[in-house]
Amino acid sequence: MYKSKKLSNGLEIVTAPLAGAKTVTVLVMAATGSRFEDRQTSGLSHFLEHLFFKGTFKRPTTLAISSDLDRVGGEFNAFTGKEYTGFYVKVEARWLELALDVLSDMLLNSKFAAEEIEREKGVVIEELNMYLDNPLVLIEDLFENCLYGNTPAGRDTIGTKKTILSFNRQSLLDYVNAQYSADKMIVVLAGGFGSSAADLGNKYFGALMKKKYRDKLPTDDRQAGPRLKFHYKKTDQAHLSLGVRTYFSGHQDELTVKLLAITLGGTMSSRLFTELRERRGLAYYVRTHDEPYTDSGYLTTQAGVPIGKLADAIRIILAEYKKLADQPVKAEELNRVKQCLIGRQALRLEASDQVADWYGRQIILAKEQSRPRPVLTPENYYAKIGAVSARDLSRAARKIFINQHLNLAVIGPCKRAEEFEKMLKL
């Protein structure tokens, strides 16, 4: 069972012991990401994530930081999303204090040397180029841009080449001194550790301070009609993402939408995988997933199809959306989908890093929401899945699969987007 305590500086320390675990994961999360940026600073959260690894006063170089963790076989990385940023170290359990020491050193004592900032601009621009050359990644950003437009929610997390090149040491310091506020951060310890582990949080992170935290702007989630976003690119297949608006994280139907996504395209036996790939031979990859943010959400199906068969793929996806709204899911299929979701989560939660992630993401998102929301244990989560009925799926499907909330993003050598606009009807 997880436990939580707050330090005097407002920092929340979460401990989640895992019986029999030989590893421990330390995850530090901050309630900030690309949705907290304006147009001029787009990509700053992600760029800063990189700079935390570039040297502290105690460990002056990237090599010094990585060597301390490499010598014990540790795994370490970081990630930036639209609503949070995270840093983690996973090590053999006896090296817990080393993990805490390295992470706290990075987050409290980074130098942000000017020469490292200039050097890292080239690295991040190449990361951006990699994403631009990968349609499977680019299609997700294009779909969110279709949904949210030129707003923080609709812009790419990594920023643009122009904004990346504009960053300087002062912009980084200003961001850290606002957004890395102790009361808007958490430290999660998960895995094999003793009963005094929580006390180490104060030892290593007690110096964090409350800052003048700036909240994100709310998302405009209104939509009066179908939207399209086409990105012309000379590719050998058309990559599409066709979806709808759904619900925010913590909404009563959040799990219902997740079950709808699995039913449609979450497994190799799902409806759209079977229809698009197995029966029609139109795609190699087919997947449907949902994304709940703190104040909005969506469900979308992605696939790579022959350029000349794009219209056929769109019709098939829309037909399956309509079918879910019109016809109740049979008990056998619903039970199979529920067990799939439960089984996948159970497999993940055998690892300390996934346990840390499980609690960390729930708690950090709750810090950004004004509405109270309980932290779900795995057992709570499994019980909520079990309580979802076929009637719930039908009700949610009828609400979300509607014409005015349809959104289509496409990457490929397609020049006439308007011809597909007429197709966006359920």
From TrEMBL:
Membrane-crossing residue ranges in chain numbering: none
MF terms (GO), sorted A to Z: metal ion binding; metalloendopeptidase activity
Residue ranges of domain Peptidase M16 N-terminal in the record: 19-160
Coiled-coil ranges per UniProt: none
Residue ranges of domain Peptidase M16 C-terminal in the record: 166-339
Alphabetical list of InterPro entries matching this protein: Metalloenz_LuxS/M16 (IPR011249), MPP/UQCRC_Complex (IPR050361), Pept_M16_N (IPR011765), Pept_M16_Zn_BS (IPR001431), Peptidase_M16_C (IPR007863)
Domain of life (superkingdom): Bacteria
SUPFAM superfamilies, sorted: LuxS/MPP-like metallohydrolase (SSF63411)
Gene Ontology biological-process annotations: proteolysis
Assigned protein family: Belongs to the peptidase M16 family.
Protein name per Swiss-Prot or TrEMBL: Peptidase M16
Annotated source species: Candidatus Falkowbacteria bacterium RIFCSPLOWO2_12_FULL_45_13
Organism placement in taxonomy: Bacteria, Candidatus Falkowiibacteriota
